[in-house]
């Protein structure tokens, strides 16, 4: 009888972003990963934004997409890193006046700051490209390298747009043209 041993990761996965180490769970069960990914997709669809095509997206919508992505990543992180990536700070004149876990709480607190001028910012400020790279990395770690099947990125490519064909040479026409075709 053959025996096969399977190793389980026991050490956290670490994403080093500048001076900050973000620790992810050593193992994530498939259904937990799919639940978190489904929440991300549901949030993206509710906002009306395709994560695979962010060109021309309204900045307010982009902030909502970023929040949803941070929430997804937080589901897969160890608690300290999850708190860091999802935390929202209320800032006035360059100083943090409060930190919050939800957008609603942060916006309410910002509105109550004396003299106004307070704004809500991510506690851990990251460029969108880094968030996208983190998404790709965790999909590799926990999803076997492929996006889950409900991802629009896994769909077939769309048909070319209707209209005039391009002016490039076609391989099927070869070097000589035949009359009448």
What features would you describe in this structure?
By secondary structure, the protein is of the alpha+beta class. It is built from 5 helices and 5 strands; from the N terminus they run E-E-H-H-H-E-E-H-E-H. The chain folds into 2 domains: 10-86 and 127-151, no CATH class; 88-123, no CATH class. Helix content is 39%, strand content 14%. Strands 4-3-5 form a 3-stranded antiparallel β-sheet, with helices on one face. A two-stranded antiparallel ribbon has the order 1-2. Helix 1 packs antiparallel against helix 2, helix 2 runs antiparallel to helix 3 (79-86) and helix 2 (59-76) runs parallel beside helix 5.
List the helices and strands and how they pair.
Blueprint: E1 13-17, E2 20-24, H1 30-47, H2 59-76, H3 79-86, E3 88-92, E4 95-100, H4 103-112, E5 119-122, H5 128-143
Helix pairs in contact: 1-2, 2-3, 2-5
Labels describing this entry:
181 residues, alpha+beta, 2 domains, three-stranded antiparallel β-sheet, 14% strand
In short, what is this structure?
With 181 residues, the protein is α+β, with helices and mostly antiparallel strands.
- The H-and-E topology, N to C, reads as EEHHHEEHEH
Beta-strand percentage range: 5-15%
Q: N-to-C terminal Cα separation, in Å?
A: 67 Å
Rounded radius of gyration (Å): 23 Å
Number of strands: 5
- The tally of domains stands at 2
Strand order of the largest sheet: 4-3-5
Question: If you average the pLDDT, what whole number results?
Answer: 81
Judging from the principal axes of the Cα atoms, what is the shape? globular
Work out the helicity level. 25-40%
Q: Helix- and strand-based class?
A: alpha+beta
Largest sheet: 3 strands, antiparallel
Number of helices: 5
Provide the low-confidence segments as ranges: 149-177
